[in-house]
Amino acid sequence: MRGTHKESGPDSAGRRRGEVSGNQTKRPISEGAEAELNKVYSVLNHGEVELVDYLGSDSTIARAARTSYQRSDGKTPDDDRRLIARLWRDRHTSPFEMVSLTFRIRLPIFVMRQHVRHRTASLNEWSFRYTECPELFYVPAEDDVRGQSKDNKQMSAGHLSPEDSALAIRLIAEINKDSFEKYKKLIEMGMAREQARVVLPVSAYTQIIWNMDMRNLLHYLSLRLAPDAQKEIREYAQIIAGIVGRGWPMIWDAYKAP
Ligand SMILES: Cc1cc2nc3c(=O)[nH]c(=O)nc-3n(C[C@H](O)[C@H](O)[C@H](O)COP(=O)(O)OP(=O)(O)OC[C@H]3O[C@@H](n4cnc5c(N)ncnc54)[C@H](O)[C@@H]3O)c2cc1C
């Protein structure tokens, strides 16, 4: 199921016992972002996206920008909205770096390789040296086995026939199963996890805690929501865009403005 969500369990990277909850903090919070915290969105066959923490609201950006002219008393949300729209339009982007979002993302390694190219993020990833790889592998949905584009070497176009789609899915599932069996066998033989993992395909899922400031996150979204981005990473970007839109509506409106 894509884009559906559930609340995360106690072992997620969200708030834990003893941590201060939103209504006790002195920091500015966003009601929309609070509502998004710890919602787990499903993507692809085993992927997940969850906002686990954030810093700053729409007004954080307006306040930071007003530092330029040392006047911020008596400003209303409408003033903030107009200022944020103007800042984005004028590409006065540094105040947007005052807000940051932290996600837990489970994604196949081939999507991770695209994701990790966004160097302005900070991240920490599952270690398959430290723990074993779980049996979670990407297999495309039946209606999403795409053909190779003839005019763009990097893109897909159209779909394979239902028969070829079924065969493609079977071949991928077989490889996934076979690789995992060999992986487990190597582990059972006593081989180090750091070496045994060489048999894992790029369809294996990994997981990251991924932090980015809003300015660079909007840049990520521009690149990864675009039609020329691979569909699989686009699905992740669409979920992240939805979270930004609901959590930081003034920023999102400014970003989406023509
Ligand atoms: C459709 C598509 C196809 C792609 N195809 C390929 C491919 O075939 N092969 C491939 O290797 N990659 C490919 N990429 C990855 C691409 O080259 C970028 O690495 C990736 O999109 C991250 O973009 P970025 O550098 O702007 O973002 P970030 O790394 O988040 O950086 C944000 C901004 O910070 C600045 N910045 C960051 N690092 C530096 C630096 N070292 N020097 C100067 N300024 C810096 C730049 O202004 C940059 O735009 C592709 C990306 C897309 C969207």
Question: What does this molecule look like?
Answer:
It is a single chain. The two termini are 32 Å apart. The chain has helices at residues 31-36, 58-66, 77-89, 109-115, 162-188, 193-196, 214-224, 231-247, 249-256, and strands spanning 5-7, 39-43, 47-55, 100-108, 122-125, 146-148, 156-159, 205-213. The protein is built from 9 helices and 8 strands. The radius of gyration is 21 Å and the shape is elongated. Strand 2 and strand 3 form a beta hairpin. The protein has 258 residues and is α+β, with helices and mostly antiparallel strands. It has 2 domains: 5-131 and 204-256, Gyrase A, domain 2 (2-Layer Sandwich), CATH 3.30.1360; 142-199, no CATH class. The strands form 2 sheets. Strands 1-2-3-4-8-5 form a 6-stranded antiparallel sheet. Mean pLDDT is 91; it is low at 10-14. Residues 117-120, 216, 219, 223, 228-229 line the site of flavin-adenine dinucleotide.
Keywords:
Gyrase A, domain 2, alpha+beta, two-stranded antiparallel ribbon, six-stranded antiparallel beta sheet, 9 helices, 18% strand, binds flavin-adenine dinucleotide, 2 domains, 8 strands
